[in-house]
Amino acid sequence: MTEPSTNVKEHIPVRKILTAVVAVAFGLGLAACAPDDGPSTASGADATIDVGSLYEPQNLDNTGGGGQGVTEALNGNVYEGLFRLTDDGKVENLLVSDYSVSGDGLTYTFTLRSGVTFHSGKPLTAADAKYSLEKVIAPDSKSARKSSFGPIGGITAPGDSTLVVTLKTRSISFVYNLSYVWIVNAGNQSPTTTADGTGPYRLASWQRGATLSLSRFDGYWGTKASNKDVVFHYFTDASALNNALLTDQIDIITSEQSPDALDQFTANPAYRVNDGASTTKLLLAFNDRVAPFDNVKVRKAVYSAIDRKKLLESIWGPHGKLIGSMVPPSDPWYEDLTNANPYDIDLAKRLLAEAGHGGGFSFTLDTPNYDPHPIVATFLKSELAKVGITVTIKVISADEWYTKVFQKHDFVATLQEHVNDRDVVWYGNPDFYWGYDSPQVTRWVRQAEQAATADEQTALLKQANRQLAQDAASVWLYLYPQIVVASTRVSGYPVNGLNSQFYVYGITKREG
Asked: Which CATH superfamily includes the segment(s) 31-35+46-77+199-276+483-509?
């Protein structure tokens, strides 16, 4: 099981129907860090690809709180794993040339690809792979995948090209989870500020608050990058980001966060709008340990009191998707459960009465201070008032959320995104921040991870997923859209937002 990603979606302007409310209540209006120079005019293999993003890394270490931005810029580009997760969610060998699994499913033996060197020139060895995996599971690791590797019993490197991992229990997701582990140079003593990977690019420079530049690594073991250089330009405002694309300062936007601005691109043949598949879910998460949300009827009443379709359309217009559980369509165990808890005011009132709250109740909603949370909280407050529930909104910072909600469980209800795919398994952990505790779901999740086949795993997680919806363990408000907007001069970029990765090595640019 994994911790929630703190790589949240930020600065998302809402649709015009709600703009005035946000502006008055929360004082929006952020300054941008716009680049001074336009993109390179070179094309083909000599091109520089200029990428615009709202997600600058916090640091360069994905086990040290680097955030969504470090995954977007460095994963698969500068750093590689033993395995690679493709843009459509498939797992492929990368730094592993071959591997075998013992008959009992507890011993994995990996053979590393030969001829691989780090950007520093040091050859890749199994000792580096061992160090990298131990770094993820270390006590001070902040990796979102740390708890996925709980079954690990031991890691050895008996030879330069051989890595052996023994598990305490079967883990059918083990190879999948390894696709998230960066193989780093064990000798790099400053991973938060320097990078030494095996990927198709080396880190050229990082100007905090402005740009992060990558240069093609000529010593790369595999297929060389299609372009010479990539520059990530960072902005703090979606409007400034859009303007940079319109004025040719950048070639592509990794994730469009201003749906009202899309018309200026869709109506212009110079740009292409790509509506990909997202794995980011927005949740109204209850603390299922405490009253009144320890009562399933109360949770279901709240769920049915919220017009989620109206909420999604208010923020994203025709984009995004309603979901009825923690499972997005890209997960193998997806089922459409949007009608499990329908929008029905009369049903909500009836459930509240049956739960002993016919006169309503009050609760505090801890709300992160970045978009779209404040406006979503205002919408929920208005919706729940219709069934007699009074909501007090408490706006907190991302750091406060992590400490107060995630670590201390000191909350009644909260709003938060969860970025990763295959994260329904968090509901199998009663100690997780939302406190959902179903022995049956916990058993199904454990059995699914120890399953002998993918079909068995899928069947068990579908059962767990249905139970979560039946119990209204949380309110899954909607699935974010993943909208990549680019100049028609560029092609070969990823369009799906799986876990915030953005592979840039296949992007090409033609002369305009």
From this structure: Periplasmic binding protein-like II (3.40.190.10)
